[in-house]
C-alpha cells in the first residue's frame, strides 16, 4: 500500500508540474523556428560600413559621397540567376497557363475528368481538381487568372498528367484547339519548327505597397496592386544592343541551349526580375506548406546599400570586391569579366558572359559581384539620394521614378563600372544583353553581426 500511495503522490506531483501556465503570463508560443540557409545562397552578416566612393570620382558624377550606413543580416545568391534557374520559372508559367486552358476547355466540354476517373486519352484528364475533395495541396499553387471559369479558391490545376506537346499525341479536337492558341501560326514559323507564342507566358501576382498603407488610415485595399508580367526574356537584346555586329548565335541559343545553362540570364527587365522573386517565394512556401512548416521570408531584389555592402565582402573602402586598386592579380590575370585595356574584349578570356561561378568569390563567397553582368537592385536611381538616405537599412524606391539602379558593371563595361561604389541605372521596363540579377532573403531569427562568423 505504501508503494501504491507513493506512486500516486509522485504522479500527482508530476501532473501538477505539467498542468499548464496556472494563470501565469507565459506568452503565446508559435512553431519552433530554425533558420535554414536557402539553397545556393550565402549568409551576409549585418553591420555598418562606409558606403560611396572612398577614392577619386574619375567620372566626376558626384553621385556617391561617402556615408556610414547599417544593414541587417540577409541571405544572397552566391551567383547571378542563371539561364537554367530562370528557365524553371518560364516553364512553370508556361505549363500553368497551358494546364489552365486545358482545364477550362475540359470544364466547358463537360465530363468529370481526373476527379471521376477520366475517360482516358482526352482533354478531361486535365480537368480542374476541386479543393473540397480533400486532396493534399501541391507546391504548384496556381496564380494565373485569365477567365471567369477559373476560381483558385475552389479549384486547383491538375499537375498529374504530362502535357502532350507533339501534335501526333494530341488526344482529341478540344486539345488541338487549346494547343493552337499556345503556338504561333504556321506563317510565323520557319525551318520546319513550330514555335510557341511566348507573349502568352504571363505571370500574374498581387503586391501591397506597405509603406503607403502604413502612412494612411484608409482602406488598405487601395494599396493592393495586381501585376501581369510577360516572363520570357527578350532574346533580341543581343541584336538591338549592338549595331553592325553579328550576334545572331547569341540571340538564337543563349537562353535555351544547354551549353549556356550555367551562364547568367540576360534580357530580363527589372519588372521581370521582381516577378521572378515573387514566384520563387511562392514555390518555396508552397513546398513548406505541404510539409506543415512555417513560411520563409520573401525573396526579393537587394537594396542598393545591401548590394554594395555584400560586394565589399567586409573590406572597408576597397575599390573592387577583391580589394584593389587593380583589376589584375599578382600573376597578371584579370580578376573579372569586363572590357579591359583599349577595348580588347577577349583579353580576359571571355568575349561575352562566362559561367556564373567563374573567377574567385569575395570574402562572403559571392561570385562576380564585379563584371560578367551588371545587376538590378530594388532601388530607384537618384543622383542625390545619399544626401537624404536613412542611415539604417536605407532605400529609395520611388514608384514614379522608372530609373532603377544597376550595379557591378558587365562584360561590355570598362573597369570604372566594376568598382563597388560606381552607380548606373536603366529603365525598369528595359532589358539588356549585359544586365542580370540575383536575389536576397531577409534573415529571420537571432540577429547576426560582423562579430560572428557567417553560417
UniProtKB/TrEMBL annotation:
Superkingdom to which the source organism belongs: Bacteria
Record key words, sorted: Lipoprotein, Signal
InterPro entries the record matches: Glid_motil-assoc_lipo_GldK (IPR019866), Sulfatase_Mod_Factor_Kinase (IPR051043), SUMF_dom (IPR005532)
Pfam families in the record: FGE-sulfatase
Compositional bias (Gly residues): 108-121
PROSITE patterns hit by this protein: PROKAR_LIPOPROTEIN
Annotated signal peptide: 1-21
Transmembrane regions: none
Residue ranges constituting the Sulfatase-modifying factor enzyme-like domain according to the UniProt record: 40-94, 216-440
Chain intervals for the UniProt region annotation (Disordered): 108-127
Entries under PANTHER family matching the protein: FORMYLGLYCINE-GENERATING ENZYME (PTHR23150:SF19), SULFATASE MODIFYING FACTOR 1, 2 (PTHR23150)
Protein name, per record: Gliding motility lipoprotein GldK
Source organism per UniProt: Mesonia aestuariivivens
Amino acid at each position: 500500500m505504501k508503494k501504491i500511495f507513493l506512486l500516486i503522490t509522485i504522479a500527482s506531483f508530476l501532473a501538477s508540474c505539467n498542468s499548464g501556465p496556472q494563470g501565469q503570463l507565459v506568452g503565446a508560443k508559435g512553431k519552433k523556428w530554425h533558420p535554414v540557409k536557402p539553397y545556393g545562397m550565402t549568409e551576409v552578416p549585418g553591420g555598418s560600413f562606409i558606403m560611396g566612393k572612398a577614392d577619386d570620382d574619375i567620372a566626376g558624377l558626384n553621385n556617391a559621397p561617402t556615408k556610414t550606413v547599417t544593414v541587417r543580416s540577409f541571405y544572397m545568391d552566391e551567383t547571378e540567376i542563371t539561364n537554367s534557374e530562370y528557365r524553371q520559372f518560364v516553364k512553370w508559367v508556361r505549363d500553368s497557363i497551358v494546364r489552365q486552358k486545358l482545364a477550362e476547355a475540359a470544364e466547358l466540354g463537360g465530363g468529370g475528368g481526373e476527379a471521376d476517373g477520366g475517360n482516358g486519352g482526352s482533354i478531361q484528364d486535365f480537368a480542374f481538381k476541386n479543393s473540397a475533395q480533400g486532396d493534399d495541396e501541391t507546391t504548384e499553387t496556381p496564380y494565373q487568372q485569365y477567365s471567369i471559369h477559373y476560381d483558385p479558391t475552389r479549384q486547383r490545376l491538375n499537375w498529374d498528367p504530362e502535357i502532350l506537346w507533339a501534335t501526333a499525341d494530341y488526344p482529341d479536337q478540344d486539345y488541338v484547339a487549346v494547343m493552337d492558341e499556345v503556338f504561333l501560326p504556321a506563317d510565323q514559323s520557319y525551318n520546319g519548327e513550330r514555335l510557341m507564342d511566348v507573349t502568352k507566358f504571363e505571370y500574374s501576382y498581387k503586391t501591397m505597397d506597405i509603406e503607403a498603407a502604413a502612412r494612411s488610415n484608409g482602406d488598405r485595399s487601395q494599396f493592393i496592386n495586381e501585376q501581369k508580367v510577360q516572363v520570357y526574356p527578350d532574346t533580341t537584346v543581343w541584336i538591338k544592343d549592338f549595331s553592325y555586329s553579328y550576334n545572331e548565335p547569341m540571340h538564337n541559343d543563349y537562353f535555351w541551349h544547354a551549353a549556356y545553362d550555367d551562364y547568367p540570364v540576360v534580357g530580363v527587365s527589372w519588372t521581370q526580375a521582381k516577378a521572378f522573386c515573387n514566384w520563387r517565394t511562392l514555390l518555396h512556401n508552397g513546398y513548406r506548406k505541404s510539409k506543415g512548416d512555417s513560411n520563409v521570408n520573401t525573396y526579393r531584389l537587394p537594396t542598393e546599400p545591401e548590394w554594395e555592402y555584400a560586394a565589399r565582402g567586409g573590406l572597408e573602402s576597397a575599390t573592387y570586391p577583391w580589394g584593389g586598386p587593380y583589376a589584375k592579380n599578382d600573376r597578371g590575370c584579370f580578376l573579372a569579366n569586363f572590357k579591359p585595356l583599349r577595348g580588347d574584349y577577349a583579353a580576359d578570356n571571355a568575349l561575352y558572359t562566362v559561367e556564373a561561378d567563374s573567377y574567385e568569390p569575395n570574402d562572403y563567397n559571392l561570385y562576380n559581384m564585379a563584371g560578367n553582368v551588371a545587376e538590378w537592385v530594388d532601388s530607384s536611381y537618384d543622383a542625390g539620394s545619399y544626401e537624404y538616405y536613412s542611415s539604417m537599412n536605407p532605400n529609395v524606391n520611388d514608384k514614379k521614378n522608372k530609373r532603377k539602379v544597376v550595379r557591378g558593371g558587365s562584360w561590355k563595361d570598362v573597369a570604372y563600372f566594376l568598382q563597388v561604389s560606381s552607380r548606373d541605372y536603366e529603365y525598369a521596363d528595359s532589358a539588356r544583353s549585359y544586365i542580370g540579377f540575383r536575389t536576397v532573403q531577409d534573415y529571420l531569427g537571432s540577429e547576426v553581426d560582423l562579430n560572428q562568423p557567417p553560417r
